[in-house]
Specification:
By secondary structure, the chain is α+β, with helices and mostly antiparallel strands. It has helices spanning 32-44, 58-65, 85-93, 102-109, 111-120, 168-182, 230-236, 254-270, 309-316, 321-335, and strands spanning 3-9, 47-53, 69-72, 128-131, 146-150, 164-165, 186-190, 196-203, 208-209, 213-215, 246-247, 275-283, 289-295. Helix 1 packs across helix 10 and helix 2 (58-65) packs parallel to helix 3 (85-93).
Length: 351
């Protein structure tokens, strides 16, 4: 029996900027190169693969195809819970899928909810304030510099060079821009001045932490703010002219490495993440790691020059790209008691 795998995704498009869309509107979506690379890897695993665009027609396509399992990388079309739409549909249809469930995806996209839940569970994250309007007063617990972000976005959407603000005027201007441009609330976080890391995890009950990636912000131009902004991720660092911005494994003391990994695993478990996740951290002024964001749908761009963090960490751990994809599928199959359906065990990297 050949394992039938649906591949749910949202293909990247050109935003209609003349209709008011920000230039990064589709930044989270995947290009054809990534979708095709995932499909190719699954086919090497002897799976029958059907690509499914995660749009309004996805429900009917899933009913018609009835795959054994879905490999989900869909970001969703719109709304504050958009990443949870496809998993919610799959649960309603009784179709297993890779990755985290609807609740985890919805919470993780909301930066304020994520910070609140992590803080309640003793996981360190930045102090913050959510703004509905630019004219609201800044909480006395916060002091400049601060970082202004859209509340519910990923892939550095809405995080610009100007997002690091140093006074009230800059704060109000940036909050106003975020609310108007992205039609959502703005979150204002304390700026953590230390080194920045991203940590990939694969597994479930005892997830494996991949080698830690450090984002070398000092490699950015002097004019750039020391944050991993949209400009840094998508404009300054491109495959045609890549910056030497990643170090993996990160050069850090063993005690800091141990602490980062412990926090990553605890975060993974507190938020009920499954199969795969990438967690961003930064050191505060006391060199203590704190959670910036949790990414249960991490990017999986195959081109090493594109500096996609999870594949970068996986390569450092000895994975080929095909092994990374098939191992994620294997983890989901194992979680659902379906691992016997996967044929090509040579592409599974046991953790």
């Amino acid at each position: 029996m050949t394992l039938k795998v649906g591949l749910t995704c949202n293909l990247k498009k050109q935003p209609c900027t003349d209709e008011g869309m920000p230039e990064d509107f589709y930044a989270e979506f995947d290009d054809e190169e990534t979708v095709n690379a995932i499909a190719k890897a699954l086919r090497k695993g002897e799976c029958e693969v059907s690509k499914i665009e995660a749009d309004e027609e996805a429900y009917d396509k899933l009913i018609k195809l009835r795959p054994d399992i879905v490999f989900n990388i869909a970001e969703g079309l719109c709304g504050e819970s958009r990443e949870s739409h496809i998993p919610a549909i799959l649960e309603m249809l009784g179709i297993p899928y890779t990755g985290s469930g609807p609740l985890t995806l919805a919470i993780s996209l909301d930066k304020a909810l994520t910070h609140q839940i992590l803080s309640f569970n003793g996981v360190p994250s930045p102090s913050f304030q959510v703004f509905k309007r630019a004219k609201e007063k800044l909480d006395k617990r916060l002091s400049f510099p601060l970082v202004v972000k859209p509340l519910c976005e990923g892939s550095s959407k809405g995080i610009r060079n100007s997002s690091l603000v140093r006074d009230e005027t800059q704060l109000k201007n940036q909050v106003s821009w975020v609310i108007k441009t992205y039609n959502q609330l703005a979150i204002v976080e304390e700026f953590l001045p230390g080194r920045e890391f991203t940590i990939g995890l694969i597994g479930n009950d005892r997830p494996t932490v991949l080698p830690i990636v450090e984002i070398l912000l000092d490699k950015l131009p002097e004019s750039a703010s020391p944050i991993y902004s949209y400009e840094a991720k998508w404009i300054l660092d491109v495959p045609e002219k890549p910056l030497d911005i990643f170090q993996c494994p990160a050069y850090i003391p063993q005690d800091l490495e141990r602490k980062i990994k412990q926090i990553a695993v605890k975060t993974f478990k507190v938020l009920n993440c499954r199969d795969v996740c990438r967690i961003d951290m930064r050191l505060d002024r006391n060199n203590e790691p704190r959670i910036l964001e949790v990414n249960p749908l991490p990017g999986m761009i195959p081109n090493p020059d594109a500096h996609s963090c999870l594949p970068e960490a996986a390569r450092a751990a000895g994975f080929t790209y095909d092994q990374l994809i098939c191992t994620i599928l294997w983890q989901a199959l194992k979680r659902c008691g379906m691992q016997h359906l996967f044929r090509n065990r040579s592409l599974i990297k046991l953790l």
